[in-house]
Amino acid sequence: MTVQQDENDFLHLNQNLMSILRIITLLLLTAIPLVAQTLPPRPFGPTPKPQQLVWHKLEYYAFVHFNMNTFTGNEWGTGKEDPSMFNPANLDCDQWARVFKEAGMKGIIITAKHHDGFCLWPSKYTEHSVKSSVWKNGDGDVIRDLSEACRRHGLKLGIYVSPWDRHEPSYGDSPRYNEHFKNQLRELLTNYGEVFEVWFDGACGEGPNGKRQVYDWPGFVGVVRECQPNAVIFSDGGPDVRWVGNEDGFANPTNWSLLRRDEVYPGYPNYQELTSGHSDGTHWVPAECDVSIRPNWYYRSTDDDKVKSPRELLELYFKSAGRNGSLLLNVPPDRRGLIHERDIESLQGFRKLRDEAFARDLARGATVVASCVRGAAPRYQASHVVDGDEESYWATDDSVTTASLVISFEHDTAFNCLLLQEAIQLGQRVESFTIEIAKGDKWERVAAGTTIGYKRILTFPKVQSNRIRVTILRSRACPVISTVSVFNTPELS
Ligand code: FUL
């Protein structure tokens, strides 16, 4: 081998290395923007905490107003009731749990203490409780019975506890009562296993000469966080779940899970705002829609023929869970301590209607084409909206806030209901959308909406077509849609 040959080999090697380097650089230069482009959308605005995400999926659960008022026939007791009046001779929390489970509910929130101060558990801090009643000779504990029944039936347990207490002598002596209330909260939140929601009622009927109690809200919230870190806290203004601003069980069609939380407090005078939330809200505080299956919160035999019908309950479901809220349906046990036959009938009828309404998602597995797919990446492709997986989603490029999806069926298909979901872990984004069907070579509008959020259900007169176009007209950031479902629900025709 000559010196000349050596030099040639060296030069060749160098040239080869240079070409390889050039190719690598080229690859990197083209790949970097692609990789950057297909990064998931960044969260936009306030987003839900993990326990709020879990809560959103519950959608429908029971409210149970049951305690001293059940026996007096009052809606608000005075606190002067004789504890011996509380005597539900056939109390059976297992029956409640069975009925609610069969109704398709996910949990039960019980009035552990209402405004009259009577406690359904043997609190160490008052004599005004089940321990002074004749029920089970004072040895009973409704919260214990219910927590065990919930566990047996796979239901979540929630606790309603009224800060306003008309029995407790320390009420009005602010620091003393606040301590009393926190002690009672601790009992409820440490002795009965996991609690999914703590419900703070904002009502207080003290007149101008009534007792003035300044509540230690940060302290109350602190006790819940300490004892039940996975629970959500409800009040007019959250901090985790807000009142919907009415007791009729509906949210407005425009419903933001957002709230200017620092402005809203229990007893907030502009509570009508809560039915839509605040579009410029600073925190994620979704709406819970509470309503009673009867005209009153507590059981009265005179209401037995006024129980809401399955059809009325279905309509409420569309106006609550179908408008980005949850449905908290009150079903008050009677004086026996049982859910009344009339209520059971309605709950079962409602379950049947709901099952029929959503029996078959016509869009599942259909062909979907989007006007834009984020980075043209499969991870964000349009078909994710019909794959039945709430975790996967369709998203557009960051710069695209108006976009559409066309869902095609093999044949003309009749339908009257559409269900949409945003991937809310990334925030609530959509402000306006339309739904159209193909008629010949034209598109015909069948429905339009504003917000979507966790779940938005739209119903309309039955139409028939082989193509549906969902257009996101306005979104605060690129739309991120996890579900589009299509139904032909018999109840609506
Ligand atoms: C209100 C209370 O005053 C009613 O009695 C009932 O408990 C309802 C759910 O909340 O604020």
Write the layout of secondary structure elements.
Elements: H1 3-37, H2 50-56, E1 60-64, H3 68-72, H4 93-102, E2 107-113, H5 142-153, E3 156-161, H6 174-190, E4 197-200, H7 217-227, E5 232-235, E6 241-243, E7 258-259, E8 283-284, E9 287-292, H8 310-319, E10 325-330, H9 341-357, E11 367-370, E12 394-395, E13 403-422, E14 430-439, E15 442-449, E16 456-475, E17 480-487
Parallel strand pairs: 1-2, 1-10, 2-3, 3-4, 4-5, 5-6, 6-9, 9-10
Antiparallel strand pairs: 7-8, 11-13, 12-17, 13-16, 13-17, 14-15, 14-16
Beta-L-fucopyranose is lined by residues 75, 201, 203, 290, 297.
Question: What is the structural class?
Answer: alpha/beta
CATH topology heading of the largest domain: TIM Barrel
CATH structural architecture of the largest domain: Alpha-Beta Barrel
Strand order of the largest sheet: 1-2-3-4-5-6-9-10
Q: Quickly name the level 1 CATH class of the largest domain.
A: Alpha Beta
CATH superfamily (homologous) name of the largest domain: Glycosidases
Based on Cα principal axes, name the global outline: globular
- Stretches where pLDDT is under 50 for at least 5 consecutive residues are none
Helix content: 25-40%
Secondary-structure element series: HHEHHEHEHEHEEEEEHEHEEEEEEE
The number of helical elements comes to: 9
